[in-house]
Amino acid sequence: MKTNGFIDKKISRHKTLPEVIAERLKQAIINGELKGGQQLKQDEIAKRFNASMIPVREALRILEVQGLVKLYPNKGAIVRELSVEEVEEIFDIRIMLEKGALKFAIDNLDHKEMEYGEYILKKMDVLVEEEHLSQLNFQFHNILYGASQKNILLELISDMHIKLERYMRIYLLNMGYHQTSQEEHYKMLEACKNKNKSLAIEILVQHMENAKQSLVIFLKSREN
């Protein structure tokens, strides 16, 4: 349940207060409730969470590391604007990382992981307008990459996902590319089932290039 616009005060017992504040603000940014260029007033956030300024500042530093806000001396925190340059760079990094992860993973993927990947895709088929779609999208990719057993590489991929998530929600929902993305996912999964490493990687790269170019065109059109 939301209160005061974008803050849900239900606090997880498994997270610190700064982590909870950061998570609530992150979801508000990704959902578009907090817009690019919007200032995040620390005193208002502290009041809504009944918290001191210290955990609020820690939360904003977490969001800065995640690439969602920018901290300025004497100005505070500003939600980062969506940009063509950022989406291009993040996708280029993702392609390099995820090609490697999939290459390491394919030989280790077993029947159970393939079945779970297909289960996630079927869930996505019926979640056309759900905000959790981008999270399931990453979960599907992560199922494939998890078999690589390269923990540092998986952490880097996860970091890129956080930086890209609000772009992916635009791509999958606002721009209506969910069905196209799903078709590419099923082809990738089939190539993995057949242990066709080169084809799976080729589909993966094209899958991300398609998303990147579509987002670049969309963002440029908003600038005009």
UniProtKB/TrEMBL annotation:
The keyword DNA-binding applies. CDD domains: WHTH_GntR (cd07377). The keyword Transcription applies. One of its GO terms (molecular function) is DNA-binding transcription factor activity. Keywords: DNA-binding, Transcription, Transcription regulation. Pfam families: FCD, GntR. Residues 15-82 form the HTH gntR-type domain. It comes from the Bacteria. This is Transcriptional regulator, GntR family.
